[in-house]
Amino acid sequence: MQTIRRVAELKEAVSRFRAEGSRVALVPTMGALHAGHMALIDAARRPGTRVVASIFVNPRQFGPNEDLSRYPRREMADARMLAEGGCDLLWAPDVEEMYPAGFATSISVAGVSEGFDGAARPGHFDGVATVVTKLFNQVRPDAAYFGEKDFQQLAVIRRMVADLDMGIEIVGVPTQREDDGLALSSRNIYLDEGDRARAVALPRALGIAARAIGRGEDPVTVLDEARGTLAAAGFDVDYVSLADAETLGEDPDPSRPRRLLAAARIGNTRLIDNLAIEVPAAPE
């Protein structure tokens, strides 16, 4: 696996992939890789496809009081994982290469970016949309792979790609979980032993709520119960909400795909998770 740190060299390498007749798939990451990221690599590996992974801790998607300075960085270990997983090229620019002097552009996606984490983390999704647009322009992939764990991020990127006619296939890969159900996340390393034991209450509460809503129970009551369960487990709850799976509008039509979204803090660690709500079968 080749590691590249300069845009000009990246474009040359991708041009060689194209010249050999290969499709190009991109897996954007911020590093600190785990099995969830490797599921993206595995999904991207198809016959006739070259896989490019990026590692870039994007300062533009961190707020002033967030964990940019302590976000885990372990490029050597990540590179070994990528190589063993069949990745063809690692794109690992520094901040100066991604945002050179004078950089002044920001991409904003209205609607899907404004609630949930967009409200809790102002400017976060502008930073995501901007860096992903840059990555797409640098790599020019045929397809890009993102985890469904960051479901709002996935919705923002899908909306952006559609609105700007980028012509890139955006593939959502199901959330990878620990044996007890906790969604895999690079931030899970922040959890101490006690918080890790309590953290499992998040996927369990969401699972109970998703099944109840799928059975037709009142969403307002179900969501209130889920918030209470999480608070009793020691979480400081940001939101537990039901949304349309495409628009992320709240109070969604039950005949359309819906998503249960949650964010909550346990100790010093903020966790997010989501689950699909099954669409009721049409009566025969």
Structure description:
Its main location: cytoplasm. Catalyzes the condensation of pantoate with beta-alanine in an ATP-dependent reaction via a pantoyl-adenylate intermediate. It catalyses: (R)-pantoate + beta-alanine + ATP = (R)-pantothenate + AMP + diphosphate + H(+). Keywords: ATP-binding, Cytoplasm, Ligase, Nucleotide-binding, Pantothenate biosynthesis. It is found in: Cytoplasm. This protein has 284 residues and is α/β, with parallel strands linked by helices. It folds into two domains: 172 residues, HUPs (Rossmann fold, 3-Layer(aba) Sandwich), CATH 3.40.50; 90 residues, Pantoate--beta-alanine Ligase, Chain: A,domain 2 (2-Layer Sandwich), CATH 3.30.1300. Helices cover 37% and strands 20% of the residues. The chain contains ten helices and nine strands. The chain has a six-stranded parallel beta sheet with strand order 1-4-3-2-5-6, sandwiched between helices. Strands 7-8-9 form a three-stranded antiparallel beta sheet. Strand 8 and strand 9 form a beta hairpin. The model has no long low-confidence stretch (mean pLDDT 96).
What is the overall shape? globular
Number of domains: 2
- Helical proportion? 25-40%
Low-confidence stretches: none
EC number: 6.3.2.1
Keywords: ATP-binding, Cytoplasm, Ligase, Nucleotide-binding, Pantothenate biosynthesis
Pathway: Cofactor biosynthesis; (R)-pantothenate biosynthesis; (R)-pantothenate from (R)-pantoate and beta-alanine: step 1/1
Family: Belongs to the pantothenate synthetase family.
